[in-house]
Design a protein that fits this description.
The protein is mainly α. It has helices spanning 4-21, 33-37, 41-63, 70-94, 107-111, 131-153, 156-184, 190-196, 204-218, 220-227, 230-247, 254-275, 290-319, 323-364, 368-371. The two termini are 37 Å apart. The model is unreliable at 368-373 (pLDDT under 50).
C-alpha cells in the first residue's frame, strides 16, 4: 500500500540531491543558492526513509513471533538494488564518455560496496555518489542480524543501551576525527573521505528511521494516537530542520559534524512520521507525479550525475548562466535516462524477483493431499 506522504518525501529527496549536484554544471545561480546549498541533506532523508521502511519490514514478523527469512529478505534487496546498479557500473567501466569526472576507483570497490570506506576523492570522483548505496548495503546486511539477536535477548534495556551507544559514539567519533585532521591539514579531502562517507559516521539517519519502525511495530496504539497530531510533528520537524541548517551553515565545520547529524535526523524523522500518517496535511498530500518520481527515484539517483556531464559536454555552452532553465534541461534529460533505466532494467528485475519468490513459496507449500491427511 503506497503512502502519498512518503512518496512526496522520496521525490523531494532525489530532486533536492540533484539540486546539490548541480554544482557540477555551474549551479542554480545566486537566487537559488539556498536551495542548492543544503541539497546534500536529500541523502539523509533517504536514510531515514530506508531505516523506517526496512526496519518495519524486518521487525513486523519478529513482533508477531514468526521466523524471519533471511533468504527472502536478501533476495528482495538484491533484486531491488543490483540490476540497475550493475547496469550503471558497466556503463561507467565500458563507456569513458559516461563519466562525470576524470578518474574512477577500481571496479572491485563498487562490487564489494566498500567505495565509501576507501576513496581518493580528489582524483577518483567518478560515481562517488555510490557511497550512500554502500551505507545502505551495510545496513541491509547487518540490521536483520542485530534485530533477530535483540529479539531473542528480550531485553529492552540492552536495545536502548545499544542505540544510545551508537548515537553518542557517532558524535564522539566524528568530533575526534574532525579535531585530528583539522590540526594536521593533510593534502587531501579528509572531510569527505574520513567523515562524510564512512558508514560508521552516517548511522544517525538510519537509526532515526529504525526508531520510527520500532515505535510503529511495538507501540501501535501510541503511534496511532500521536498520528492524530501529524501536522504538529510536521511543524516541529520543519523547525528542527531550520536548526540543522544553522548548525551546518559551515558544512565541513565542527558544530555540524558533531551534533548536527542527530539534529538533522530527528527533524527528518518527524517529517517521515507525518508523511506516514493518513491524517494530516503531508500524509494526505497526493501531489501529481510524486508517486512516479518516488518509483524511479533510485534509477534517477544512479544516472543524474553522468547525465549532467553528458548534457554539459554537448549543450553546456548554450545553457551556461541560464539558472533554472539550465537545471530544468539537465533535469529533464536525467528523468528520461532514469525512466529508461527503470523500465528496461529495474522493473524487469523486480518482476523476476517476484517470480522467484512465488516459485519458492510454491515449492515450500505442503502437498494438498498430505496436508489433508
Amino acid at each position: 500500500m503506497r503512502m502519498p506522504g512518503l512518496d512526496l518525501l522520496r521525490a523531494i529527496a532525489v530532486l533536492w540531491t540533484m539540486c546539490f549536484h548541480s554544482f557540477l554544471v555551474g549551479g542554480l545561480g545566486e537566487r537559488w543558492e539556498w536551495l542548492q546549498r543544503y541539497g546534500w541533506m536529500g541523502v539523509d532523508l533517504f536514510f531515514v526513509l530506508s531505516g523506517f521502511l526496512i526496519g518495519s519490514q524486518v521487525l513486523a514478523p519478529l513482533a508477531r513471533g514468526e521466523r524471519f527469512s533471511f533468504a527472502d529478505f536478501y533476495l528482495r534487496r538484491a533484486f531491488r538494488i543490483l540490476p540497475a546498479y550493475w547496469a550503471i557500473v558497466a556503463l561507467y567501466l565500458l563507456w569513458p564518455g559516461f563519466r562525470e569526472a576524470p578518474g574512477m576507483e577500481p571496479w572491485w570497490k563498487f562490487a564489494g560496496f566498500v567505495l565509501n570506506l576507501s576513496i581518493d576523492y580528489d582524483d577518483n570522483a567518478v560515481f562517488s555518489h555510490a557511497w550512500s548505496l554502500c551505507v545502505e548495503e551495510h545496513f541491509y546486511l547487518l540490521f536483520p542480524l542485530l534485530a533477530v539477536g535483540f529479539v531473542r535477548l528480550r531485553s529492552k534495556a540492552s536495545v536502548v543501551a545499544f542505540l544510545v551507544t551508537l548515537l553518542m559514539g557517532g558524535i564522539a567519533l566524528r568530533t575526534a576525527i574532525w579535531v585530528h585532521f583539522d590540526a594536521l591539514q593533510p593534502g587531501r579531502n579528509w572531510f569527505i573521505e574520513d567523515i562524510y562517507y564512512p558508514t560508521w559516521n552516517r548511522l544517525d539517519g538510519l537509526l532515526a528511521g529504525v526508531g520510527l519502525a520500532v515505535w510503529k511495530i511495538y507501540r501501535p496504539q501510541h503511534w496511532a494516537t500521536c498520528g492524530r497530531c501529524a501536522d504538529l510533528f510536521l511543524l516541529v520537524g520543519v523547525i528542527t530542520m531550520g536548526l540543522s541548517f544553522w548548525l551546518f551553515r559551515e558544512r565541513a565545520g565542527l558544530l555540524g559534524n558533531s551534533i548536527g547529524w542527530p539534529v538533522l535526523s530527528a527533524g527528518l524523522a518527524m517529517l517521515v512520521f507525518a508523511g506516514a500518517q493518513r491524517e494530516g496535511w503531508l500524509g494526505a498530500c497526493a501531489v501529481p507525479g510524486a508517486a512516479w518520481l518516488a518509483a524511479v527515484s533510485y534509477s534517477l539517483y544512479l544516472v543524474h550525475k553522468p547525465v549532467f556531464g553528458l548534457v554539459e559536454m554537448y549543450f553546456g555552452a548554450v545553457l551556461q548562466g541560464r539558472g533554472l532553465f539550465a537545471f530544468a534541461s539537465y533535469g529533464v534529460a536525467s528523468l528520461c535516462a532514469a525512466a529508461l533505466l527503470y523500465y528496461v532494467v529495474e522493473r524487469p528485475g523486480l518482476r523476476l524477483r517476484d517470480r522467484l519468490r512465488h516459485s519458492h513459496a510454491e515449492r515450500a507449500r505442503p502437498d494438498a493431499s498430505i496436508a489433508g491427511a
